[in-house]
Design a protein that fits this description.
By secondary structure, chain A is an alpha+beta fold. In chain A, 34% of the residues lie in helices and 24% in strands. In chain A, strand 2 and strand 3 form a beta hairpin. Chain B is globular and about 85 Å long. Classes of the chains: A alpha+beta, B alpha/beta. The interface between A and B is medium-sized, with 32 and 38 residues.
Amino acid sequence: MRNGIPAAALSEFVNEVRDTPHEAVMDYGINITWESGTRSHVEAKPMHVGGRRVSRKFSWKADEPRQLMGTNHAANPQELLLSGLGACMMVSFLAGASAKGIQIETLEIDFEASLDLRGFMGIEANSAVGFPEIQYTIHVTGDASAEAFETLHRASVVHSPNAQTILNQVALKGAIVSTSI
Amino acid sequence: MTTSNTTRGDASSQSPLSPGINWLSDLKRSRKPGPFFGEAQHTWSGASTCAVHAGSSDDPRTGAVGTPIYQSSTFLLEDDQYNSIHDGYARDRFIYARYGNPSQWAVQQKLAALEGAESAIVFSSGMAAITTAVLSFMDKGAHVVASKELYGGTYNLFNQELPSLDMSATLVDPRDFDAIEAAIQPNTQILYFEAITNPLLTVVDIPKIVEIAKKHSLRVIIDATFATPIGLRCLELGVDIVVHSASKYLNGHSDLIAGVVLGSRKLIDQVWPRMLTYGGSLDPHACFLLERGLKTLAIRMKAHQDSAIALATYLEQHPAIERVFYPLLPSHPDHAIAQRLLDNATGNVTFVVKGGDGAALALLKALRLPKQATSLGGVESLISLPFNSSQAGFTHQQRVGMGIMPGTVRLSVGIEDATDLIADFKQALGQMTDKTETTHA
């Protein structure tokens, strides 16, 4: 099976969604709990795939390096953000390749990004709090031309949910439930 | 090397790939029922017509009537087969018998037609079917809510195997809908019930189970072995997946072990790769036997029911019998549900002999017609005691908790004439009464 993705099932899912759009609705959630210092514990909540519940017994941690007052026990939030972006772009790239009949042999995406903590610290009003830029390089080998891979690259970013979440403004609706002791 | 001019498999299934695809939205292949040799033949109004004709085909080379036995483990590979592997529709081509074999396809199409399903997969046993179906819809950490009146093999899957796989089950009273709903956890994915339970013949209110499942976004899997599609068309009631031990009524002759999973093409396509991994595919010769047995399913189920109700009615008035469980008896707790849901009742009758398991064993030895053997659904009557066979894995207290009292007898009424069965029970119960009177003399 090309790239480990059944193109027939992918096509059938696409056309099922065309007829019954609610099958395309995916509901996600995670719960993050403070453990100590900068370290936190994350658990995936049950997911809904087209309205059907899927158990997600996955958990991971986040931390900061010691230099940033952490214990360096896990990837930090920025690394997790980049991994979420990269993994999504990879799924998009592979799905697109499978739909086009391109056999991928190897695929790797290398990410780098810098941010200036003066924004986080509030020292410099003009400094961006988040990443001003994210750089990545896709390393791919497979049975397509460089031009075909570039076309696939552009299409995969346009259709990557996480890439588009980063590229476009997203509403962040928050609330706080506080208990004073 | 020979080259085939015709598709060896489901000709309606073709590659989703074509020139000019820029993104997923350009993919045109849609899901269809099957895989079938030709168009699905679901237009017959009668179950017997379906049972005789659906899926069965005559041999095109010789004109021999009836589906040939394709006793082949592997098939010639050409570009079409290779493409099906690369493009993800290998289920629709003949490649290797574990993936699919014409003998399997024939009986699968017949079973799908009887059940009103888009797709079916036959397995090497009912437990292979149940295990594969359950694990196909359970993800890491998942939980299932199931009936506490389960077949022993299914109970072992839930009680012994799921925890090893980091999964879990909660078993509840199948009549207690509040308890079913209360048992649902955030990680619950399946509600699993038997349409008619073993051995107490509790008739589960499937529409109510489906209603609860929809409310909580869950899948419903029903084991309909005791009901068969002649008695109950579960998918029409909103059930997602139906499983059967085909060794029982579906085959009907106590001469093979098989199982089947049925449902929409979408869901059965999710079962198929698990079947490839777990094994459990059905041998072509067993497929032939099952296909042949199925042809008489409708008339057999009618005969089972006719003899079962006659015998159950006789037993209920006999002084040596404590209680009789049969859904068509007005005394059965689920009589109203059975009347509402079942087009044909099961051939199983369960009863409790006065005097406990010892008296029940004595009855089995005194009977001449029913064979003392486990299993059920054959043309011959089979009789056994749950305490030392189907429910032997439970403790005495667990059995009592499930409602299986000492002296409980499980009788699978065959298609023998009711007059002969009643006469045999009359003489056997008479022997027991005589012995009791002699002992007391």
